[in-house]
Design a protein that fits this description.
This protein is α/β, with parallel strands linked by helices and 116 residues long. The protein is 34% helix and 22% strand. It has one domain: Hypothetical Protein Ychn, Chain: A (3-Layer(aba) Sandwich), CATH 3.40.1260. The two termini are 19 Å apart.
């Protein structure tokens, strides 16, 4: 199954992004599944590199790394990054700058689209 996750919320302060990444990681464990994550709005900061969180707290950079290590793909919206002053070197390893055209392509590719 091909699943696209579209995340909109900030990585911390709520649980939508956390829960989406938990599900993406669980689906990615199965070799028959393909997972892609597109980050929009405040969710682009989910892929900010060098995150330091309190001990015992989840880390969205690490959670995205798990998805990527399972052959998943992660893109962050170009204009959303620009609006937040983020540059490519600030993206977590394996994450890439994406576009609305890419999101449209990934939406057509997917069997299921989950929006968080």
């Amino acid at each position: 199954m091909k699943t696209l996750f579209v995340l909109n919320d900030a990585p911390y302060g709520g649980e939508r992004t956390y829960n989406a990444l938990r599900l993406a990681g669980a689906l990615g464990k199965e070799t028959s599944n393909e997972v892609r994550v597109f980050l929009m709005g405040d969710a682009v900061t989910t892929a900010h590199n060098h995150q330091k969180v309190p001990e015992g707290f989840y880390n969205t950079e690490a959670m995205l790394g798990k998805v990527i290590s399972q052959a998943g793909k992660v893109s962050a919206c170009h204009s959303c990054m620009e609006a937040r002053g983020m540059s490519d070197p600030e993206l977590a390893e394996g994450s890439h700058r994406g576009s609305l055209a890419q999101l449209a392509e990934w939406t057509e590719w997917a069997d299921k689209v989950l929006v968080f």
